[in-house]
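In this supplementary section we document a worked example of the pipeline. Step one takes a protein sequence of length 383 as its only input; no multiple sequence alignment statistics are reported here. Step two produces a three-dimensional model, which step three serialises into structure tokens for compact storage. The input and output of this example are shown verbatim.
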Amino acid sequence: MRGSRFWSLLCAFCLVGVLLALSLSGGTDVPFVKYWEALVKPLADVDGYDQQRGERKILSPEARGALRAVQSHLQRSRFDHTVNDRQVCARPSTRRREDTDPNLVYRWKDANGLTHMSDERPEGVIATVLDMRLSAQDFSYRLMPEGLQLPVDFAGKVAAGSKRMYDVWHFLLGGNKLKQARIDVLLVADDARFAAYRASTSSDTFPIAGFYSMRSNQAFVKADPAQPARNLRVTYHEVSHLITASHLGPTPPWLTEGLAEYFETMQVRDQTGAVYPNEAHIRLLRSQVLPSLHAYLSIDRREWYGEHRERNYAIAWSLIHFLLQGSPGMYALQSTVRQVETHFCRPFSVLQALEKAYPGGLSRLEADWRRWLTSQHFVTQQT
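The serialised model returned by step three reads:
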């Protein structure tokens, strides 16, 4: 009898492994994982007590080992980076950075021999046409305000801030992997209008200042005409989501939200950027008992945005700010991001990638990160 149980468990393990591998190519789906957990549950009960017969059923060591392997495989699948992401293979459309639009300039001389240049074709004269297009372009962007007038320097700050984000991505992925994103931002002043936009993309109801829709590849900002600085911070946050999605597709919340929170505090001046520590997050983190990094990085998407979402946002910010402050963290994050990009639309554990990339593993990262949190060494980072 024990032999038959062992072979049953072994066959179940093989079947689960094959089907999980096939399903994960399109993304880990929690209902699927729960289905297989339910399937394995009766096998686990074999090593328990039979209430009807009143006798204890004992598995052989071999069968118990096979059972543990099945349960372990399912547990690892639950914590894969695609958990709860049905659109794991989705990624917004992009262009190659070398695919730039023409930038035509017309040059001609008038009757007096004076040279003129314009971006509009002159009347009554055949001009020399110069194409001044860029050799490479990181992004194009469009701001669409609804119900408010943007400050005159708002568009310039969005463009400069987006360029600074791309500079960081140039480090994270390398220039040959960068894609040209189309950045569309709707800044909506009317609360009801913003709520309607949100309802069309999500059933979530918790308060937010903005969101990014991968389906339309648009960022939405709940804008307050009286708070232009706050509007800019939220715009940076959502633009970061758009750029991350353009390169990686769906990613674990700690990574995409961590980058977005990191860039939210950026200030640009003269085409340079300074990323400031988030004082509100620092205060929150110092006032709470924080989970272990392994537990935090294993939270699935639904739980991440649950009752502890403010804490989760703060931890995500702190991790990215800590990792990007210098070596070895910046190279560990670089390695992790590059592996995420390489494993697009394939089963992959970001947690394990980060653990392998950081010298000393996750335990060393946690020790260094917690030491940093308790210090006063929160420096402004230049981009």
